[in-house]
Write a structure and sequence with these properties.
- This protein is 45% helix and 23% strand.
- The protein is an alpha/beta fold and 405 residues long.
- It is globular and about 70 Å long.
- 40% of the residues are buried.
Length: 405
């Protein structure tokens, strides 16, 4: 068959370790034989980030702003051990954090469902999408290990140098720990707009939760900004689309989520979203079956898998051992980016290819062919065959060819 032509490039961000190996397998087996792939390539592997002093990460983010759609492989956020392992000149920041900040984006994560893997929460029937505000909170907090007794204060000085606020946080009578976190109205507004727009685009109800009864300034600011934007800009659109928005406390939201049937977007602050996305993915089956897309308020998209670089499998791969690493979420990152590129450029063939690629993944799993991480999750009595990564990808290709034929 003739390869599908692309008119505008995708931004391609390569990554690290086992997911980097899978990245190339996916391109070779599932993409390049069928699509005349046009990408602007950036290597976000840790050696290249070290070589460019992390400039490559910033370049990839600005390219995403230019072209509108990106696909990203999982990358390492180095800790002290990684600094020594890769002989780094410094502990480079999270590429995801850098890209989120430049795009001013919100992360939406949703599970991939198949009939033979039932959620741990028996009444869940449809995916629950977590919208995570990827800015501020403890991820940008200033921390201090208090060594002895003394007074900690919260102080604000305006740009003219005038002190306008001072309040005691705690009078320490012994050693302890202190943390100061922050957020910005502009970032919260971008988060709200992204959530409302994504809900309209996917025609799903939107839930938002914080703890404003306890955090009467920080969390309440989120609540009030969301409500203001909804009332002024989205209420009529939601009613016309037949979807709803509502706010509740985070603890009430957890109870409601567990009792629900799913099928909605749950918007959370940064830390809440980090935790709840892993909870939701695990309850639905596996983090390797979780999609992730970063959406900016002005309509830029960056697709990736929700999981990390699968370090344990990579070390086995380096020893020449066979691995059974699940590539589904990474394949869906590619299909999501190709679909969005096709939608933006009016390329129905590219949109259809993305649909067929995802369908081939589901066909393969429903035929019982899967990686080892899923075999213990299937409904009892289901006939399964555990295969290695490349054989799994080849099985997907076989079904993709049938679909495209």
């Amino acid at each position: 068959m003739e390869k599908i032509k692309m008119t505008t490039p995708l931004v391609e961000m390569d990554g690290d370790e086992m997911t980097r190996i899978l990245w190339q397998m996916i391109k070779d087996e599932l993409l390049l034989p069928f699509v005349d792939l046009k990408t602007e390539y950036y290597d976000l592997g840790l050696p290249e980030r070290e070589k460019t002093k992390d400039k490559v990460t910033f370049d990839s983010a600005y390219a995403t702003k230019k072209y509108g759609v990106a696909v990203k492989c999982a990358t390492i956020t180095p800790n002290k051990q990684r600094v020594e392992e890769y002989n780094l000149s410094e502990m480079w920041k999270s590429p995801n954090g850098t890209i989120r900040a430049i795009l001013d984006g919100t992360v939406f994560r949703a599970p991939i469902l198949i009939d033979t893997i039932k959620p741990a929460v028996r009444n869940w029937e449809a995916p629950i999408t977590i919208a995570r505000h990827a800015y501020g909170d403890i991820y940008k907090a200033t921390e201090y290990r208090v060594p002895t007794e003394g007074k900690a204060e919260l102080v604000f000085t305006d740009k003219e140098g005038k002190e306008t606020f001072r309040e005691t946080v705690y009078d320490f009578e012994c050693p302890g720990v202190l943390q100061g976190s922050y957020n910005k109205d502009s970032s919260i507004r971008s988060f709200a707009h992204a959530c409302f727009q994504y809900a309209l685009g996917t025609k799903q109800d939107l839930w938002f939760s914080t703890k404003d009864t306890i955090s009467k300034q920080y969390d309440q600011t989120f609540k009030l900004i969301f409500q203001e934007i909804y009332d002024n800009e989205y209420k009529a659109k939601f009613e016309e689309a037949g979807i709803t928005y509502f706010y509740t406390l985070i603890d009430d939201a957890v109870a409601r989520v567990i009792r629900s049937k799913g099928g909605f977007i749950w918007a959370c602050k940064n830390y809440d979203g980090d935790v709840m996305s892993d909870m939701v993915s695990t309850a639905f089956g596996s983090l390797a079956m979780m999609t992730s897309v970063l959406v900016s308020p002005d309509g830029k998209y960056e697709y990736e898998a929700a999981h990390g670089t699968v370090t344990r499998h990579y070390y086995r791969h380096l020893k020449g051992e066979e691995t059974s690493t699940n590539p589904i979420a990474t394949i869906y990152a590619w299909s999501g980016a190709l679909r969005k590129r096709g939608e933006m450029d009016g390329l129905t063939a590219l949109v259809n290819f993305a649909d067929q690629l995802e369908g081939a993944c589901i066909d393969t799993l429903m035929d019982g062919i899967m990686t080892k991480d899923l075999t213990g999750l299937v409904v009892p009595g289901t006939k399964v065959e555990a295969v290695n990564s490349i054989d799994f990808i080849k099985a997907i290709r076989e079904r993709l060819e049938k679909r495209l034929a």
